[in-house]
Fold:
Amino acid sequence: MSFKDFSLPAVLRTFKLTYSEASLFASVPEHAPSDWLTQTLAETVPLGLALSNEKARSEMIIAPVLVEVRRSLDHQVGLFSGVELDVDAAQGLTGVCDFILSRAPEQIFLSAPVVSVVATKPENLEGGVGQCAAEMVAARIFNERAGHAVDAVYGAVTTGDNWRFLKLTESHLTLDADEYMLHQIGKILGIFRTMVTGL
Structure:
């Protein structure tokens, strides 16, 4: 079993989490995208959506958005793509995360604290929520083992065009009741900046 095998009910049951849905980021201010991101997405979004597979959307849509988050925070956060997060194979907390953001700026290796994981799905956001939640549990354990526990670990599930966010605090998982579209890029950037800085 790995992250991708988890449904949301299985995560809640296995790790004894309570669950709710709430508007998590409605008051978060937008962050204007740079000219670089605006121009890049103008070229890459039509390609990523036309190809309609996870790899294309990850490379052409999601990666530029996350690079922009890192750039906007003066490169003081780590951004990782396709990195293994093997925490506890017996519980299924193992596998490759599509993207990870950490508060440590090192890029040679993954350092705690991991503050956000991003799971990409070509079509079905709901199908990725369980996977993302399992990755968030693994990130929390990774942080605790490294002596860098954080108050909350965040997650995002995205098709590239649609984005849903999650928050894990102690034993409670919250799914953001709001769904954001890529044309709301300023809001999406603001949310990621809030998740990473903890403000």
User: Anything to note?
Assistant: Residues 125-145 form the longest helix (21 residues). The chain has a mean pLDDT of 93. Residues 3-197 form a domain with the tt1808, chain A fold (CATH 3.90.1570).
